[in-house]
Amino acid sequence: MSLARGLVVSAPRSGSGKTVITLGLLAALRRRGMVVAPAKSGPDYIDPQFSGRAAGREAINLDPWAMPSDQLRALAGQQATGADLLLVEGAMGLFDAAADGQGSTGDLAQTLQLPVILVVDVDRHSQSVAPLVAGFAQWRPGVTVAGVILNRVASARHERMLVSALRETGLPLFGAIPRRPELVTPERHLGLVLPEETGDFESFLDYAARTIEDFIDLDGLLAHATPLREHGAPAAVLPPLGQHMAIARDAAFAFAYPHLLDGWRAQGAELSFFSPLADESPAADADAIFLPGGYPELHGAALSAADTFKQGLLSSRDRGVLIYGECGGFMVLGQGIVDKDGATHAMSGLLPVTTRIDRPKRVLGYRRLLHESALPWSSGLNGHEFHYSSAKTSGLPPLFEALDAEGIRQPPMGAVMGRVMGSYAHVISAP
């Protein structure tokens, strides 16, 4: 089997429109009959849910800060198996990285040896777009900018000025997309809303695909895709929490990395899923329970009333099941959540922790996580933290000691009580 080809979609900065353009590209290429495998650079949970819907195929995360190069290449190759194209959406600007300077989309493109399509928001730009694009194209010899897509072009005259200026760069221009208010997706405090919450997502996707078909030279763009390198099988980075893991999955618990689930299955673990919002209990024979992150603060009343779910957690605790919660899952393990309106919703009460989001303060960054707990994972884990709520842990021992990307010590994270534990950290991989 020949190797699939790949491209990376990036931009000079966040907010340039690369997510919508990536969705449009996925949908337009799918309409051509192509099988396109989607991926997202970095720790983002939400964009991959959109791109997976657009591609009709699950998206994965490729995190160049948290994952070693061999794992990135192996995961990319595995994702691209059976596909015509691997399309990777970048995070932030092309060379934006963690505080230690590592983990940019440029790093990922260089590791995978894939060319970059640069999406440039030209609102309030004219001829100055040329030195901007030239600077990105020449900045790092190991990163190839294959060409440019202009976004939010104001008029035909504006486009002529931009096209004339860009000729000096020698880079291909794959197209220019006009300002379209219809090409805006709603957002909330942690990013985009989930696809099922956007109303008629399929109509939005159809509009994005038609816009790409109308304004982008797809054949010219595809001609620059590069075959992926040979790869080995992805290493199983983290062992499963148990031989039968019950995993919460619904709109309140939507943030579980596919590469972890696939890795656990590959190691022989049985994974069963349940919905706390539907008041389902975890499997009675599970020896581990995983509550991923999500948006429990938006579903406080429903979770508070989910007595079957909460009783299932209590029964599992009493028979010694390992119960682990990340971010939103950690919040649900506590006694209560205070929502943005100041209302308190009772949670499972497995940990004497209260979380609140009525006084929002953003906490964001990569973390190296040290622990001595019942988690069957090595110390020195790589993870990510992103939340606006805060937690009062009532003096319990923390689950993790934490360092940021620069190695600066952070406040201890989470809480442990017996075999029940959790924190705001999303674990990505082991070193």
Q: What would CATH call the architecture of the largest domain?
A: 3-Layer(aba) Sandwich
Total domains:
2
Q: What does the main sheet amount to? A: 8 strands, mixed
Query: How many DSSP H or I helices?
Result: 12
- Residue share in helix: 25-40%
Radius of gyration: 22 Å
CATH superfamily of the largest domain: P-loop containing nucleotide triphosphate hydrolases
Please state the structural category.
alpha/beta
pLDDT averaged over residues: 94
Detail the poorly predicted runs. 188-192
Q: Whole-Å distance between the termini? A: 32 Å
Overall form: elongated
Annotation keywords:
elongated, six-stranded mixed sheet, Rossmann fold, 27% helix, CbiA/CobB_synth, alpha/beta, 2 domains
How do you describe this structure in short?
By secondary structure, the chain is of the alpha/beta class. Helix content is 27%, strand content 26%. One of its GO terms (biological process) is cobalamin biosynthetic process.
Structure, described:
The chain is of the alpha/beta class and 431 residues long. It folds into two domains: 5-227, Rossmann fold (3-Layer(aba) Sandwich), CATH 3.40.50; 244-429, Class I glutamine amidotransferase (GATase) domain (Rossmann fold, 3-Layer(aba) Sandwich), CATH 3.40.50.880. It is 27% helix and 26% strand. It contains twelve helices and 25 strands. It has helices spanning 18-31, 46-55, 69-80, 105-112, 129-139, 156-166, 201-215, 218-222, 258-266, 300-304, 307-318, 328-333, and strands at 5-10, 36-41, 60-62, 85-89, 116-121, 145-153, 173-178, 187-188, 191-192, 226-227, 244-248, 270-274, 288-291, 322-326, 336-338, 344-346, 354-356, 363-370, 381-387, 390-392, 400-403, 409-413, 415-417, 420-423, 426-429. Strands 1, 2, 3, 4, 5, 6, 7 and 10 form an eight-stranded mixed beta sheet that branches. It has a six-stranded mixed beta sheet with strand order 12-11-13-14-24-23, sandwiched between helices. Strands 22-21-18-19-25 form a five-stranded antiparallel beta sheet, with no helix packed on it. Helix 1 packs parallel to helix 2. The radius of gyration is 22 Å and the shape is elongated. The two termini are 32 Å apart. Residues 188-192 have low confidence and may be disordered.
